[in-house]
Design brief:
Layout (H helix, E strand, L loop, with lengths): L19 H17 L4 H28 L3
Helix pairs in contact: 1-2
């Protein structure tokens, strides 16, 4: 079988907000569950897609707040 992670989650973007490591830990747990058969791959992909969308939204929020705080 294929033992690659379904998604290697980047922590660079949302790490500025202090939650990138938490999102990465969730992604690792989802990958582990999918590999062990405790979770279907389709369910894992859905969860990882939502994690990625959350990361993008937080990155957008961070960028917006930075622009608001510029003189």
């Amino acid at each position: 079988g294929d033992h690659r992670d379904l998604h290697s989650f980047p922590t660079r973007r949302s790490s500025d907000l202090g939650i990138g490591n938490n999102l990465n830990q969730i992604a690792r747990n989802v990958n582990a569950a999918a590999k062990s058969g405790d979770m279907g791959q389709l369910d894992a992909i859905k969860i990882l897609t939502e994690i990625n969308a959350t990361d993008r939204a937080l990155t957008g929020l961070r960028d917006f707040l930075r622009k608001q705080n510029q003189p």
